[in-house]
Amino acid sequence: MGALSTYVAGFALTAAFGVAHHFALAGILRIAPHHGQHPKSGVVVTFVSLLALHTAEFTALAAVNHWLLGAVFPDAFEAPPAFADTLYLTGIAFTTLGYASLEASGGFRMLLLFQSLLGFMLLTWSATFLFSACQKTWQQEED
């Protein structure tokens, strides 16, 4: 896969996960308790839902990466990584930690770059979403 194709694929994958995240947040809004219905439990439900969402997102991303490493980027590592290694690498990229004992080469690095951007965007979006749930609870406690 050429550099431009990898760049476009990374952008498309990031956009797809962003759209899915939007709809997942809308679902969390529907299941979290609302005004007057156990306001503090709304924060807990939101937090646990976001934890489950992010776990599902980086696990799905790891599955995509694992497939890509076998089908498109077989030379990205000296030896094909096990799924657990791919999950670890994806989690490191997703959380933007940036350090991993696995070092990718070639076009797969570009995808990891987009996945770091994706993780940063989704995590900050979720943090804002969680803060909003907390803020509603705090306002209800003041009233």
From TrEMBL:
Residues 78-135 form the Potassium channel domain. InterPro entries: K_chnl_dom. Keywords: Membrane, Transmembrane, Transmembrane helix. SUPFAM superfamilies: Voltage-gated potassium channels. The keyword Transmembrane applies. The chain crosses the membrane at residues 6-29, 41-62, 82-100, 112-133. It comes from the Bacteria. It holds the Pfam family Ion_trans_2. This is Potassium channel domain-containing protein. It comes from Palleronia pelagia.
